[in-house]
Amino acid sequence: MRNLLVFLSAINQKMEVVTDIYKYNGDGCVLTVGMFDGVHRGHQSLLEQLVAKSRELSLPSAIVTFWPHPKVVLAGEQVRLLNTLDEKLSHFAKSSIDRVFVLPFDRQLAQLTPQEFIDQYLVDKFRARYFLMGYNHHFGKGKYELDDYTGMATAAGLPSSRVEKFVLESRKCSSSEIRKCIENADIETANELLGYLYSIGGTIIAGDKIGRQIGYRTANVLVDDQNKLLPPDGVYACYTYVDGTKYNSVVNIGLRPTFNGSDRRIETHILNFSDEIYGEKINVEFVKQIRKETHFQCIDELTTTIRNDIDVALRALK
After folding, report:
1. Among 239, 231, 235, which residue's Cα sits nearest to residue 284?
2. Cys-Cys link to 301, which of 60, 102, 266, 296 (CB 3.0-4.6 A)?
3. How far is CA 284 from CA 187, 236, 243, in A?
4. Of 229, 241, 224, 223, the residue nearest 284 (C-alpha)
5. How does pLDDT run across 37-90, given as a tens digit for each residue?
6. Contact, 63 vs 29, CB < 8 A?
7. How far is CA 274 from the centre of its chain?
């Protein structure tokens, strides 16, 4: 793989993404390490402190992250992720990070002790000049106390510190907590902990065209990353972005039991929109669950409920 430059014109930010670490030959940096799934408000607090420290020391800010998720490699689990890699990198750029190292996570890397990882990667490869650790973050093979990591960094000649625990109104802010919220359709709490609206990206594909037959056209979304965590089956108030334009929408996730559906689909009914967009990339932001998916006895009952869904969604999206 090669070094990439990610340009995000909306924030006028240039961020270097290093995927071929063996060819990297950069300068010193202020660095942190983590999976950062979700890049939630706790992560954002850490990244703010990272950038502040980098400016204090007049060095670039840098993140070491991993792909795929370590649990996929170590336990063979299918991990439902809050962010795709592209989404995560976009959030990093919005935090004004200068450089991201994406380490391919494999069993060889998993065998390194924390001291070996600090020595071989943070110091030798990435030339870190300061190491800022997340609260309660562990890395490397073996079990260690949090203070042990500071000692290992000191042994490698690397100054370090650990950020304080981030708490949002007495609520734990963690990737696992946010996953639980989304799995329980508590989208509003998930968004509060994330600090932004949870979203999925995908491509519009052909469906059964039932929606247009009953007066409510929908666009079927094929999700970009099948490991992306989806909210449970139900109807949601959302924003759908088409070619950069934001539209109010009502999204259904589920099997479409009224029509004896057998495969789970994501369908967005974009309000005040009638363009043909097959093959186009869109992004859907979730605001609130309106109701669970329901089996209706007749089409009239369904269309009446859809009209009500739209009313509820518009109130939620104001």
Report:
1. 239
2. 296
3. 13, 10, 12
4. 241
5. 999 999 999 999 999 999 999 999 999 999 999 988 988 878 899 999 999 999
6. no
7. 30
CA angle 54, 59, 65 (to 5 degrees): 70
* Interval 154-199: pLDDT, tens: 999 999 999 999 988 878 899 999 999 999 999 999 999 999 999 9
**Amino acid (1-letter code) at residue 290:** I
Higher pLDDT, 4 or 186: 186
Domains of the chain and CATH, by start: 4-164 (3.40.50.620), 198-316 (2.40.30.30)
From the number of C-beta atoms within 10 Å of its C-beta (0-12, 13-18, 19+), residue 203 rates as middle
Calculate the dihedral angle through the C-alpha atoms of 230, 232, 235, 241, rounding to the nearest 10 degrees. -10
Q: What residue has token string 């949870």? A: 198
Within the chain, strands assigned E span: 4-8, 13-18, 29-33, 61-67, 99-104, 128-133, 160-162, 167-168, 171-172, 199-205, 219-223, 234-242, 245-254, 265-270, 281-291
Residue found by looking up tokens 């994330």 in the block = 194
The answer to whether residues 271 and 310 touch, using CB atoms and an 8 Å cutoff, is yes
